[in-house]
Amino acid sequence: MPTLQNKVAIVTGSSSGIGQSIAIRLAAEGANIVVDYRSHPEGANDTKAKVEAVGGKAILVQADVSKLSDTQNLVDQTYKQLGRCDILVNNAGIEKGADFWDVTEQDYDAVLGVNLKGAFFLTQAFVRRLRDAKLPGRVINISSVHEDMAFPHFSTYCASKGAMRMLTRNLAVELGPLGITINNIAPGAIMTPINTALLGDKPKLDALLKNIPLNRLGKPEDVAGLAAFLAADDAAYITGSTYVVDGGLMVNYHEQ
Ligand code: NAD
Predict the structure, then answer these.
(1) What is the DSSP string of 137-161?
(2) Which pLDDT tens digit goes with each residue over 19-65?
(3) For atom 8 of ligand 1, which residue has the closest CA?
């Protein structure tokens, strides 16, 4: 039997990249999927078609996760249309590069608003329903190697992912008694739209590949397999952890 039969999963930002891949993989394991998108219904429809191609069911909900009312509506729509919600994947994320001394309030609010505030309050809305119904659940955050590893000129991104790391550890303690687990996946460099500039910059890309022992960028599917594991019964006793999916990037160090 598929490992996620009869489960319902919200995957934020699943109109592209890692989120789309996770949506398809969870569906292949039997879950019904809520495809959240902010502004690309065509991408969300593409995800829906791919979910259906593996035999799953998907609904589309437009929600900007940085807006509290949208996160509440996302959970409400899930219950209204699918009757339950067992798994939340906080995947939506953005990055904005700038030297620290040039970061604007607008960019700070944008990055922290999606990557941290969005995950925070959507998890809150997800947990409240489970707590009231006395049901267990799974939260899977798509963090980054930059929850730990410095990324100069991306201080807002690092602040958001570092905070997500600590939030996960804190919530593991608070949510454990409710039977809700929470874990982070920390991808390294994965081939998705967020890396469009990097993929077009050969010298930068070559330099990065030298730091990756497996000598390639990751594919969204490399991340999706781990999300499926963390959502399934095999991961029932795992909470408060971060799993790195980076081809060995973080542990690599060369003496020059
Ligand atoms: P992506 O740009 O394809 O995906 C990000 C998704 O988030 C998009 O679908 C976008 O529409 C959505 N999104 C952005 N703002 C939103 C909002 N306000 N509300 C709802 N959705 C919103 O890139 P990706 O690489 O698939 O990124 C997915 C996650 O993986 C992000 O959290 C990112 O930080 C993380 N990550 C990616 C990499 C990588 O190398 N690709 C590495 C580490 C971590």
Answers:
(1) EEEEEE--GGGTS--TTBHHHHHHH
(2) 999 999 999 999 999 999 999 999 999 999 999 999 999 999 999 99
(3) 13
CA pair distance 205, 218, nearest whole angstrom = 13
- Confirm or reject: Cβ of 19 under 6 Å from ligand 1: yes
pTM: 0.98
Active site (annotated) includes residue 157: yes
Mean pLDDT, range 65-71, rounded to an integer: 98
Place 256 in a pLDDT band, splitting at 50, 70 and 90: low
In the chain, what are the domain boundaries?
8-246
193 in contact with ligand 1, CB cutoff 6 A: yes
Among residues 108, 157, 237, 243, the one annotated as catalytic is 157
**Does the 8-246 domain belong in CATH 3.40.50.720?**
yes
Our measurement of the distance from residue 52's CA atom to the centroid of its chain's CA atoms, rounded to an integer in Å, reads 21
User: How far is CA 62 from each of CA 15, 31, 68, 69, 145, rounded to the nearest angstrom?
Assistant: 10, 20, 13, 12, 28
| 243 CB-near residues (< 8 Å, 6+ apart) | 183, 184, 185, 186, 226, 230
Q: Cα separations (Å) of 197 from 7, 20, 60, 203?
A: 37, 20, 29, 12
Q: At residue 2, does pLDDT exceed 90? A: no
- Tally Cβ neighbours within 10 Å of residue 137: 24
CB contact at 8 A, 151 and 246: no
**Taking the alpha carbons of 5, 1, 12, 237 in that order, is the dihedral positive or negative?**
positive
- Enter the tokens of residue 234: 């095999």
User: From the CB of 190, is ligand 1 less than 6 Å away?
Assistant: yes
CA distances for 28 relative to 84, 147, 220, angstroms? 19, 29, 15
3-state SS assignment for residue 200: coil
